[in-house]
Amino acid sequence: MSIIEKLQHKYALSNQGAKDMIKAFVACTLANMAQMMPVGMLYMMTADLLNKELPQNHKTIYIAGSAICIVLIAITEYFQYNATFFSTYVESGVRRRSLAEKLRKIPLSFFGKKDLADLTNTIMSDCAMLETASSHWLPELVGAFISTTLVVISLFFFNVKMAIAAIWVLPVAFIIVFTSRNVMHAVNKKASKYRVACLDGIQEALETVRDLKAYNAQDEYMTGLNKKIKAVESNSIFIEFLNAAFVCNAQMILKFGIGTVALVGSDLLIKNQINVITFFMYLMVVSRMYEPLQIALQNFSALISTDTQCERMDEILSHPEQKGTQKLSNKGYDIEFKNVAFSYEEGDSVLSDVNFVAKQGEVTALIGPSGSGKTTVSRLASRFWDVNKGSIKVGGMDISKIDPEKLLSMYSIVFQDVTLFNNTLLENIRIGRKEATDEEVKIAARLAHCEEFINKLPKGYDTLIGENGSELSGGERQRISIARAFLKDAPIILMDEATASLDVDNESLIQEAISKLIQDKTVLIIAHRMRTVAGADKIVVLKDGIVAEADSPEKLRKSGGIYSHMISLQMKSDNWKMA
Ligand SMILES: Nc1ncnc2c1ncn2[C@@H]1O[C@H](COP(=O)(O)OP(=O)(O)OP(=O)(O)O)[C@@H](O)[C@H]1O
Questions:
Q1: N or C: which end of the chain has fewer CB within 10 A?
Q2: Which ligand 1 atom lies nearest to the CA of residue 108?
């Protein structure tokens, strides 16, 4: 792996970002070296002053040298600023975009294991941390390392004993910080967990504020949340303390270097092995050399702490993507499940051997007891998850070979949980097909019987609905979701409890509209209520991970199996409600 590739992998950088980081290393090294130049001049000047004469040509050298030093320091500082700051912020945007892009391409199973607060934390806080790491910590550390190495080499040319007296502290100081690695890694992992738990708690409190109020559970909840906040607080203090303990000790060791240079220098001076100017120069160089190293030690320690963030980022970036062809070669839109087995968690099978065909031009209804896997079947059919065994084909084409976004272009999906955005009603329906005209949106809304409630709103289609449609009733939200499906007009329609929140009048109106829409389409409906599925062409009954029955509603009713049993239960329940 080249240095560029290593940097890209470790700090989630783009190719350009890794190249910019190398530029920043060079810039920091040059800036440190430029800061050393006045020391050389001072050395020469001291020699002249001790000789009690300042030759004219030396005067010119000092004046010109000082001007050159000022210009060089200004140029290298500017170069360093440019290389570290500006490119870092550009790279930070690239990093966040590539993370978001990656999240689009990884299967939903990944999101099942991660919660939203954790992902938000990675995209915002971890990215911000890496932003500082790549703008300051790493370039300054590498710059200090290279410039110090060059200075150390030159120190050996003057006097080996003095050089050793000056540099013995370097490995000791860095080893002290390096030994903190394992401890810091463990506490940072813990800190990350506490932070995510706290963010989760805050998010949950905001989302459930209505229920907490309704059940007078606010105080109890706040006590729990306070505990989470306290855990973050005390853990952060502990990390700071631990960090300071290692870094301060290492920085203190670094200071011993000045002492040993003074001691060894005095001894060599007495023995006449060095002159006063060399002694003075060593004292000047070490005091100058340790300054960037003090910061380098802090940066080194901070970089060790970013290991946890890098790991979290890498977990997302290296997660296998769902890939597939963009070219569709399906013949028609029959959906065929063949020997499909699936589990969300290993060893906890949801579907063991599912076989059925949902034909184009027919309505196939999935029914079965709660938890039998109906929603799972619809998720697999749209490749939100990939099957563990067997295959799912659309028009003869294995969907695991189709690019997920391309596959979804063939589907209109009406979910149980309708997501609405804080935008106008018109735009919320237009999500079904971004390029649809206003007129097309309105036709779809009419078909889904949305106009009845839209026309009653003060601004009609231009009414802003609250975040996630909080100002709409459950039935209205579902009708918008159905309108989106009408608008998309895709050849395959997946409906999950599409009519669950509609009153009887609206439900029959929608059923009527749906029957117009589904002509020549493949329709897979999941519904609990037997009334919803009575008009289906085929009923597939799921139970214990397999298809227990599959046939037309009439035949299944007569067969006296699970479906007919569910019908009689539903009738009893309806009679009970009427009574
Ligand atoms: N994201 C998930 N991670 C883990 N297990 C899950 C997940 N989603 C569903 N399950 C489990 O898979 C099983 C089937 O769930 P599914 O939602 O497909 O059933 P269903 O028949 O649609 O249920 P219902 O009629 O109650 O909506 C259940 O045991 C459920 O707990």
A1: C
A2: 1
| Residue nearest ligand 1's atom 30 by CA | 371
What CA–CA distance (Å, rounded) separates 98 from 77? 31
Final residue before a domain boundary, out of 256, 286, 317 = 317
Q: How large is the average pLDDT for residues 307-315?
A: 81
Quote the ligand 1 centre to 350 CA distance (angstroms). 8
Mean pLDDT for 513-542 is: 80
Task: In whole angstroms, give the CA distance from residue 522 to residue 60.
Answer: 90
Hey, which of 372, 497, 540 would you mutate to test ligand 1's pocket, going by the most ligand atoms within 8 Å of its Cβ? 372
Residues 64 and 141 in one domain: yes
Query: Looking at residue 471, which CATH number applies to its domain?
Result: 3.40.50.300
Q: How far is the CA of 523 from the centre of ligand 1 (A)?
A: 21
Position 467 scores a pLDDT of: 56
Is 326 a domain residue?
A: no
The structure tokens listed for 479 are 């009708």
DSSP string for residues in 165-199: HHHTHHHHHHHHHHHHHHHHHHHHHHHHHHHHHHH
| Sign of the torsion angle spanned by Cα atoms 392, 397, 403, 406 | negative
**Contacts for 417-420: CB closer than 8 Å, 24+ residues apart:** 418/469, 418/477, 418/478, 418/480, 418/481, 419/468, 420/465, 420/468, 420/469, 420/472, 420/477, 420/480
Task: Give the pLDDT of residue 200.
Answer: 84
Nearest CA, atom 18, ligand 1:
373
Q: Are 388 and 344 in contact (CB under 8 A)?
A: no
CATH code of 38's domain: 1.20.1560.10
Name the pLDDT band for 337 (thresholds 50, 70, 90). Answer: very high
User: Which of these ranges, 139-153, 175-189, 510-524, has the smallest mean pLDDT?
Assistant: 510-524
Same domain, 256 and 384: no
CB 374 near ligand 1, within 6 Å: yes
Decide: 379 in ligand 1 pocket, CB within 6 A: no
Residue 117 in this model has a pLDDT that exceeds 80:
no
Closest-lying ligand 1 atom to the alpha carbon of residue 344: 4
Average pLDDT over residues 171-200: 87
Question: In terms of pTM, does the model score above 0.90?
Answer: no
Domain ends where: 265, 291, 317? 317
Whether residue 275 is found in the same domain as residue 162: yes
Choice from 376, 386, 546 to test ligand 1 binding pocket (greatest atom count within 8 A of CB):
376
* Model ipTM value: 0.97
Q: How confident is the model at residue 576 (pLDDT cuts 50, 70, 90)?
A: low
Q: Which atom in ligand 1 lies closest to the alpha carbon of residue 376?
A: 18
- Across residues 294-308, what is the average pLDDT? 84
Enter the tokens of residue 46.
């001291």
CB contact set of 92 (below 8 Å; sequence gap of 6+): 127, 128, 130, 131
Task: Using the mean position of ligand 1's atoms as its centre, give its distance from the Cα of residue 186 in Å.
Answer: 35
**Does 298 lie in the same domain as 341?**
no
pLDDT at 482: 85
**Ligand 1 pocket, mutate which of 344, 348, 386, 416 (most atoms under 8 A from CB):** 344
CB of 367 closer than 6 angstroms to any ligand 1 atom = no
Out of 109, 346, 375, mutate this one to test ligand 1's pocket (max ligand atoms within 8 Å of CB): namely: 375
Å from CA of 370 to ligand 1 middle: 8
Residues 308 and 348 in one domain: no
> 281 with 401, same domain?
no
